[in-house]
Amino acid sequence: MKKGNLFYLMMDKMFGRQLGFRVRLFNVLASFGVFVSLLSVAASFFTGDSPMEYGVYLIFGTIAALLIVYSTKTGRYDRCYLITIILIFFIGFPIFFFMGGGFYGAMPFFFIFAIVFTIFMLEGKRALIISALELFLYVGVCIYAFLFIPVKREYLETGHIFLESVFGFCVVSIALGVCLAAHLSLYNAQQKKLDEQNALLAQTNKFKTEFLANLSHEMRSPLTVTSVNIQTAMDVLDDMGDMVKDPEAAKLLKSAQNEIMRLSRMVGGMLTLASMSESVDKQKLNLSRLVQSTVEMLRPSIGRHGCQVKTDIESGLYVFGNADLLMQVLSNLLQNSGTYTQNGMITVEVKRQGSIITITVQDTGRGIPPELLPRVFERGVSAGGTGYGLYLCKTVVESHGGRIWIEGTSGDGTTVCCTLPYYEGQIGGREE
Q1: CA–CA separation, 113 vs 28, rounded Å?
Q2: How far apart are CA 19 and CA 16, in angstroms?
Q3: How many C-beta atoms lie closer than 10 Å to residue 400's C-beta?
Q4: Taking the CB of the first residue and of the last residue of the chain, which one, N or C, has fewer CB atoms within 10 A?
């Protein structure tokens, strides 16, 4: 019972699943090397080879066993990989090649094994460089043997060649088969785990979006009611006339109204940003019509600030995208211009140049402070708004394959430009 427990303990320590793939693979192949070395010692002894020959096999088998013990106790597997490659592949295999009949022995098969083992054990450029050096060495050894080393007479016998060939390709095939089987097993296990994690993440993301949607809906209702009540109170104060109206109360109500609207925009922006992680429905869109309808929708609210809106929109421009998100971008840009422009002009241009459509929203307002320009598209950065508007615009535009930037300095107005790829796909696509 104790022996059985000790055996299973050793197996778990060398090949347990808690170990990394390369570690287990190294232990498997090193154990295989010990077995092959002992088998070669026995074969050399019974075939009457010189003691030096099976002594060499015994030495390298001992090295393989010591490497297993050293790596298991210290955990320095990278060092063991390099020691194996240097002592066994660069030194041992060429010696075995000349001892075992050169081309007529089994070692050419083991040369293949050495290169594959190196690629499995090492990573990146180091694996490629060392495997290339091995290939160069083995080719050089073969050329040298062909030119200068006479073949032993017994290795020219048909039976001997047959046995060496069968032994070589059987051992190497089993070793490489173990490598590939272990690699595929690990890959399948990781792929299964990845699929499970992706499914869990997708479900979590769905719950997150649903939560934010519900939260946004629940917050918008009281915000709307509060905004309406404040507006009603302000209207009542206006109807009471200057003799009765309290200027301080009107000022506080207006400030409250502005903050309520700001909070409402922030909630909407948060929901839109959260939904961006979901796969949004994109289709062929008439961008010219979308921009024009958005401008007309917002024209009355912009006009309250005494601003005029001028449009220069090229007709028949199509993009492949999501109408709601692109309308949100245009709304944000127009509302920003309307907020920071008093009794001025806002110009909206949409032009096509080759495969690119450029949308420009220009105003004559007070502009953006120069110190904010480099960071104005970052989340939370604002000149007085929520800090979500331009960040959302950048996220949406880039998700549609375009880019967005700002021109203008403080006091000279602001020009926001964004580009979108012109849709040149099938004409039969759905259109909004």
Answers
A1: 14
A2: 6
A3: 21
A4: N
3-state class (DSSP) for residue 309: strand
Contact 389, 265 (CB under 8 A): yes
Three-state SS at 241 = coil
With 0-12 / 13-18 / 19 or more C-beta atoms within 10 angstroms meaning exposed / middle / buried, residue 308 is: middle
Average pLDDT over residues 313-332: 89
Neighbour tally for 294: CB within 10 Å: 19
- The pair phi, psi for residue 382, each rounded to 5°, is -150, 155
Question: Residue 35 is which amino acid?
Answer: F
Structure tokens at 97: 């090649």
Region(s) of the chain under CATH 3.30.565.10: 280-421
Burial of 392 (0-12, 13-18, 19+ CB in 10 A): buried
pLDDT for 100 equals 76
- For residue range 254-287, what is the model confidence (pLDDT) as tens digits? 677 666 666 666 666 666 665 555 556 788 999 9
**Sequence-separated (6 or more) residues with CB below 8 Å from residue 328:** 272, 392, 396
pLDDT tens digit sequence for 357-404 = 999 999 988 877 777 777 888 876 665 555 677 888 898 899 889 999
Q: How many CB atoms lie within 10 A of CB 410?
A: 15
Which helix (H) or strand (E) segment is 308 a member of? strand 308-313
280-421 CATH:
3.30.565.10
Q: What is the 3-state secondary structure (H, E, C) of 20-61?
A: CHHHHHHHHHHHHHHHHHHHHHHHHHHCCCCHHHHHHHHHHH
pLDDT-based confidence at residue 1 (cuts at 50, 70, 90): very low
Of 196-205, 208-217, 306-315, 351-360, where does mean pLDDT reach its minimum?
208-217
- The answer to whether the beta carbons of residues 342 and 306 sit under 8 Å apart is yes
How many angstroms separate the CA atoms of 66 and 58, rounded?
12
